[in-house]
Specification:
The protein is an alpha/beta fold. The protein contains eleven helices and eleven strands. It has a six-stranded mixed beta sheet with strand order 3-4-11-8-9-10, sandwiched between helices. A three-stranded parallel beta sheet has the order 5-6-7, with helices on both faces. It starts with a strand and ends in an 11-residue tail after the last strand.
Length: 374
């Protein structure tokens, strides 16, 4: 396995069981460094051709629904984006993560997470989610034969909740903000139920790193800039570590600039990056169309911001009234995505620092999963 340690007391992850927090100090486990392997397994499906980079136990099952290998499609850059970057690029590549089996990027992480849990003998588990993580967890739990229960905000879009239930998971709506669903899951975990948290457990990060590996293969080089919606920031963090692994292997010379994008209605990472600790005083968990990034207290926030800084990137926040036009613009180009994905397209057009080409915008979730269009 990869080196997995508590970020607080540095205790290694135990060799048995599947605790979501450090049993010694209740700290957060992390996989701080991933390693590229030139030994690929082309006969395995989807992201599993990179299995040797995952650090999973030898007996961990190959759990696949066909995740990964998502298209990278070039489109004309919006005029505003060209102006921001002084005309340095005319096209932008869209990484269509919404074409993963459950309709979002979460499938990359849930495939590796459920594989690990199954190898540890887990047969039932609980999760909390605003929608996409819950749907992906439910799908891969069904694939793995794990009985799933998902706590979700009752405000989550109907299609996502129905999707979770369709996979056979028990869905428990929770009133109030997104954080209330997490509190409900914590209580059940405290009573002994395995907690398959996509936020606490680090075993999804090697799966997310495959985004970096695919972009490198599809472009034939490292991207210059990558814009990614960020709530917990797991996809951004996993991709960042994937690019670092490629750099350390001598396959790319420089890291791409990583631009994390949040909805201004709930933008703690942007606030901290822009204004320091004082900025957190004004962070709200306000309603937003971009429900997938409505996370007030991202658990790996420090690591995410460190990865952004190391890449010479930055955080951006998108106003609520800018989200529908961005979603509609993408749809008229043939890309039907949920509002959470659209914030990255909107951020592409914000005044600010110039982007380095080739520019990639990650479209994280399908519009088929969104609620009523406004």
């Amino acid at each position: 396995m990869l080196s997995i340690f508590c970020t607080n007391c540095h205790t290694p992850y135990p060799e048995v069981g599947a605790p979501y927090r450090c049993p010694k100090c209740r700290g957060l486990f992390d996989i701080p460094q991933l390693a590229w392997s030139s030994t690929l397994s082309p006969s395995l499906p989807g992201i599993w051709r990179y299995r040797e980079t995952f650090g999973l136990p030898a007996d961990a099952p190959t759990l696949s629904l066909g995740e990964g290998n998502t298209p990278l499609i070039w489109v004309d850059a919006p005029p505003a984006a060209r102006q921001v970057s002084n005309g340095d690029f005319d096209q932008v590549a869209l990484k269509c993560e919404y074409q993963n089996p459950s309709g979002s990027f979460k499938d990359r992480g849930e495939a590796t997470l459920l594989s690990f849990l199954r190898a540890r003998g887990v047969t039932q588990a609980v999760e909390d989610s605003s929608g996409n993580a819950g749907a992906s967890f439910a799908a891969y739990a069904a694939r793995a034969g794990v009985q799933a229960r998902v706590y979700a905000p009752e405000s989550a879009s109907g299609p996502k909740l129905r999707q979770i239930a369709a996979y056979g998971a028990e869905v428990i709506p929770v009133a109030g903000p997104r954080s209330n669903a997490a509190e409900a899951a914590y209580k059940e975990a405290a009573q002994g139920m395995p907690y398959a948290s996509h936020a606490y457990l680090p075993f999804n990060l090697p799966g997310y790193a495959t985004l970096a590996y695919e972009l490198f293969e599809q472009l034939g080089q490292a991207p210059g800039s990558v814009l990614i919606p960020a709530g917990q920031g797991g996809l951004l963090l996993g991709a960042a570590r994937g690019f670092v692994a490629l750099q350390q292997a001598g396959l790319i010379a420089a890291l791409p600039r990583l631009i994390g994008v949040q909805a201004r209605a709930c933008a703690p990472l942007w606030a901290l990056a822009s204004y320091g600790a004082a900025g957190l005083m004004w962070v709200r968990e306000a309603p937003t169309l971009a429900e997938g990034v409505r996370v007030k207290n991202p658990l790996r926030g420090d690591a995410v911001l460190q990865a952004v800084e190391a890449s010479r990137g930055w955080m951006l926040a998108v106003d609520e009234d800018a989200i529908p036009p961005a979603r509609d613009d993408l749809a008229r180009r043939g890309f039907y995505v949920e509002p959470t994905s659209a914030i990255a397209w909107s951020a592409l057009q914000q005044p600010g620092k110039p982007l380095l080409p080739p520019v990639v915008v990650v479209l994280t979730g399908s519009g088929l999963k969104a609620g009523e269009i406004r």
